[in-house]
Design brief:
21 strands; Rossmann fold; alpha/beta; seven-stranded parallel sheet; 5 domains; 27 helices; Arc Repressor Mutant, subunit A; 46% helix; six-stranded parallel sheet
């Protein structure tokens, strides 16, 4: 008889569960509604995937992130578990076929974006499916008190009414008590539901804040002191490129990552970093979702995030292997003023939103009442230039229109080319006999992809087909498009541009359904979250880990002992040991230059954190410096 552990061993090759996973799985197997709050990297997906496999039916997984959706589907398929994804970038025929496969095929997991739930096609098909569980990922999106509210999540309650006996598992990494209560209410949890929450404390991660007028110099110092893989988060695409280039000039292997890069390029850069070919990846917040690299030793933020939820998720990518790591925030006083201005600008007036919406409709030349569920390629810079807007104000307006449930905007969208054969083998043979010029490509498709293109949509490579047929890629695309027009195949060409999807039919801009009261409440909420972020950065007397735990309503009276505030307090309490360490550092560096690691090895301090703080202070005071080989040397001032 299969058990949760045997499933874990068979498909994931792990011999034991992480904390709370087994309890969450057992509650799900007892058909309870479950809310699971696990930190980033805490293994949330296993919590619903294992019980769903044991239940032997279909699990509907609702998630707002198309990139993460595709990544999980790919991972499951690699393990021999049947999974598919449906999202706004697909055509109606493709969605129709995939939903049929969920009724009649052996599909175990259907990943779907929340915007799909209220479509007539989905509603009719879901009634015919053998659904055993609904998993709601990023569950905080259902709450308007959360930091990333998505109105489409509210449709999940209606889905529950269609299949009332099916249990729900809601999962999130970040939720305050208010948001947790809201999730339970909005998802209509049935008693006795179960709530599992891991502590927000990260025992192996030192949270550090450094205020400086020279951010670049501070980054180099940190990367010199902390060996190993690093992520540096910045706000703009331009900054990611500039900082990465500057690091390379300083002999640190680095690359940059943002949503504007082509899919292949993003994948290549990400893989090079994961494989440690590049030590540092400098990225916007487009990077990190679904990345499971356990040995990240330091995450550095060079710009202030808008809220502690985002910061905790991004900083939480450090030290997933349980070894000591750092989350460092580097800021200047001007950054706080810039953050306040940015938050203010991120709440455009209803009048401006209507203006942007009208421009979008003109951009695509849409008729009133049309385009519900339709996705379009979107170029932010072209649009802004054509209608004389600033790109920044367009971006914030799109995000606000998304928050209002009017459009959906995906910056880093990629969907490979795919094909489905409409004809059965007999009719295909008849077509080949009657249309000899299409015979070579159809034979090549059957040889390369076989039965896959008969039963469902299959990813293809036009370039690979072209090599086999000794044609140009352009010729292959032309022939496939012709076969699509003749209704022999359904051909979905590759998409690698940002996508804008209309969630409701095209409206009269003057009557755009904006909830002004909710927009005002959201603005107050966002400003409150920003103030909590500023408090975290500027606090000098409170343990940083405790500040995070307090924010998420986790009661604790224990300081972490390893953040910069706790270290400073230890220094004050043990000033004698601090001064002794300074003397020892001077002594070992009198003979020759040494790396930080070599100095620590010679001194063998009892308190590693205190030693790191001593070196930092001595560098800041000009008593120590780094030579070209990144070894510490005594300056004239300290001799």
């Amino acid at each position: 008889m299969e058990t949760p552990l045997s499933i874990l061993k068979e498909y994931w090759k792990h011999n034991q569960f992480r904390p709370l996973q087994e309890s969450i799985i057992n509650a799900a197997l007892e058909k309870q509604d479950v809310l699971a709050l696990l930190p980033t990297g805490g293994g949330k997906s296993v919590c619903f995937q294992v019980p769903a496999i044991l239940m032997e039916g279909l699990c509907i997984v609702i998630t707002p992130l198309i990139a993460l959706m595709k990544d999980q589907v790919e991972q499951l398929n690699k393990r021999g578990i049947q999974a598919i994804a449906i999202h706004s970038g697909m055509g109606k025929e493709q969605i129709d076929i995939l939903l049929n496969n969920c009724i009649y095929g052996a599909i175990q997991f259907l990943y779907v974006s929340p915007e799909r739930l209220h479509t007539e096609l989905f509603i009719e098909r879901v009634k015919q499916m053998n659904v055993v569980m609904i998993a709601v990922d990023e569950a905080h999106c259902i709450s308007q008190w959360g930091y990333d509210f998505r109105p489409a999540y509210l449709q999940i309650a209606a889905l529950r009414e269609l299949i009332p006996m099916v249990p729900v598992m809601a999962l999130t990494a970040t939720a305050t008590a208010e948001v947790r209560d809201d999730i339970i209410e909005k998802l209509k949890f049935k008693k006795p539901w179960a709530v599992f929450q891991d502590s927000f404390a990260r025992d192996n991660v030192s949270f550090v804040v450094r205020r400086t007028e020279n951010k670049e110099k501070k980054v180099l110092e940190i990367l010199q002191k902390v060996a190993g893989s690093a992520i540096i988060y910045v706000r703009s695409r331009k900054a990611s490129q500039e900082i990465a280039g500057w690091l390379v000039k300083n002999k640190i292997t680095a690359t940059f990552y943002h949503a504007g890069l082509a899919f292949e390029e993003r994948t290549k850069r990400q893989d090079n970093w994961i494989q440690n070919k590049n030590r540092v990846i400098v990225a916007t917040n487009a990077f990190g979702m679904g990345i499971d690299k356990p040995d990240v030793r330091v995450v550095i933020h060079l710009d202030l995030p808008e809220n502690l939820e985002s910061y905790y998720q991004e900083a939480g990518r450090a030290g997933r292997d349980g070894l000591h790591s750092y989350a460092v925030m580097i800021y200047q006083e001007a950054d706080i003023l810039n953050l306040k201005a940015k938050v203010e600008q991120s709440h455009p007036s209803p009048g401006f939103l209507k203006k942007i919406y009208q421009a979008l409709c003109n951009y695509y030349q849409l008729a009133l009442g049309s385009s519900e569920g339709q996705a379009y390629d979107f170029d932010l810079h072209t649009f802004a230039e054509r209608f004389h807007f600033q790109t920044g104000e367009v971006y914030t307006a799109l995000r606000k229109l998304e928050e209002e449930g009017i459009i959906q905007f995906n910056e880093s969208f990629y969907s490979p080319s795919s094909i489905h054969l409409r004809l059965d083998k007999a009719k295909l043979y008849e077509f080949q006999v009657a249309n000899e010029k299409f015979d070579p490509i159809l034979k090549m498709l059957m040889r390369l992809y076989g039965g896959e293109i008969l039963s469902g949509f299959t990813k293809i490579s036009e370039a690979y087909l072209a090599r086999g047929l000794k044609m140009s890629t352009e010729e292959v695309i032309k022939i496939l498009s012709h076969l699509h027009e003749l209704q022999v195949i359904i051909y979905q060409p590759v998409k690698d541009k940002p996508q804008l999807t209309y969630l409701i039919p095209r409206q009269d801009a003057d009557r755009l359904p904006l909830n002004s009261r909710r927009m005002e409440a959201r603005k107050k909420l966002v400003i409150g979250k920003m103030n909590a972020m500023v408090l975290f950065v500027t606090a000098q007397n409170r343990c940083r880990m405790r500040l995070i735990q307090d924010y998420f309503d986790e009661v604790t009276y224990k300081a972490c002992g390893i953040c910069d505030v706790c270290i400073a307090q230890r220094k004050e309490e043990n000033l004698h040991a601090f001064e002794d360490l300074r003397d020892e550092v001077r002594h070992v560096l009198k003979e020759k230059a040494l790396t930080v690691e070599q100095v620590e090895e010679q001194i063998a301090p009892r308190d590693h954190e205190l030693f790191v703080e001593v070196v930092r202070e001595m560098v800041d005071e000009g008593l120590l410096a780094y030579d070209e080989g990144w070894k510490l040397i005594l300056t004239k001032q300290s001799r």
